[in-house]
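wait is this the right file?? whatever heres the structure
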């Protein structure tokens, strides 16, 4: 597995970070707490669960928006992410290896790295978290985005399509745009601002 991990074509610091992820050597709150270097293991972002590496990269609500927004949510919502080391092994040399192209691995690595970078900026300098910015950061080293969409629900696909439409409107410098959708669930999420927002919508709303 290690040979494959280091062969993923991206920046060395990104591969190095993923190596630490698999080894569980990342200095997150849960690890610091275990070593008695931090008074609390809780995630500093959602404060609802210990900040394990799996929580940081896959399960914290804001990271789900990142994965969805960059069209890689399939690799984290449909696969077993309860242990980062097992997840990585599945992708690199396990039952998912055949369908995981090098291009996908590069993107996945860079999204993880961008999430960690944004988390650190939030924790250490108070920078607000923005899934859109994090996606752009990951894409900046990812290169052109290509590939097919894979999503885990109907609203995922609808929200993803809306996100592309928003991006196109922004590229065209449109000040106003009207989007139509036959997905009532999606429309209600935007109309009812007080209702809990599914994570799929967060990536669109913050666009
Ligand atoms: Zn969290």
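ok assuming it is, sequence goes like this
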């Amino acid at each position: 597995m290690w040979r494959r991990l280091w062969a993923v074509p991206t920046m060395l610091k990104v591969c190095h970070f993923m190596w630490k992820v698999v080894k569980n050597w990342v200095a997150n709150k849960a690890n610091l707490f275990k070593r008695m270097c931090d008074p609390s293991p809780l995630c500093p972002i959602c404060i609802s669960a210990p900040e394990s590496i799996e929580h940081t990269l896959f399960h914290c609500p804001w990271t789900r928006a990142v994965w969805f927004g960059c069209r890689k949510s399939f690799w984290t919502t449909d696969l077993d992410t309860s242990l980062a080391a097992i997840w990585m092994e599945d992708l690199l040399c396990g039952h998912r290896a055949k369908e995981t192209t090098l291009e996908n691995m590069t993107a996945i690595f860079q999204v993880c790295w961008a999430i960690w970078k944004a988390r650190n900026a939030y924790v250490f300098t108070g920078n607000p978290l923005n899934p859109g910015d994090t996606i752009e950061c990951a894409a900046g080293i990812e290169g052109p985005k290509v590939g097919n969409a894979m999503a885990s629900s109907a609203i995922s696909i609808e929200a993803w399509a809306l996100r592309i439409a928003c991006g196109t409107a922004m590229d065209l410098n449109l000040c106003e745009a009207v989007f139509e959708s036959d997905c009532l669930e999606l429309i209600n999420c935007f109309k009812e601002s007080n209702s809990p927002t599914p994570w799929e919508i967060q990536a669109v709303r913050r666009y």
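The pocket of zinc ion is lined by residues 43, 45-46, 49, 55, 60 (CB under 6 Å). so i think its the right one actually
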